[in-house]
Amino acid sequence: MAVTLSEKAAKHVSNYLAKRGKGVGLRLGVRTSGCSGMAYKLEFVDEVVPEDMVFESYGIKVFVDPKSLPYLDGTQLDYAREGLNEGFKFNNPNVKDQCGCGESFNV
Fold first, then answer.
1. Where are the beta strands (DSSP E) in 1-107?
2. pTM to 2 decimals?
3. Is there a contact between 45 and 54 (Cβ–Cβ < 8 Å)?
């Protein structure tokens, strides 16, 4: 099982952590939400939770809780700019369907 960051995403997280002045990495998880059932959640990690799985890409640690991992296995988190919008993109091979607005998904 693995969760990875693209080089662009890792650079963005690294820059943000440096500006923030603290943090050991990024936590990625899922929560029940939206019209399709689940939504991604992202947060910076200041304290490590012992049960989290830890993956590393380009020097950035990604923390995933055990309940979220089956839904996120194989996911690559990318950072992209599309027109005037920029943000994280989740390349998750487990997604079977997404809602029209792209905020939620199901597996």
1. 4-5, 25-33, 37-45, 53-57, 60-64, 76-82, 85-91, 97-98, 105-106
2. 0.85
3. no
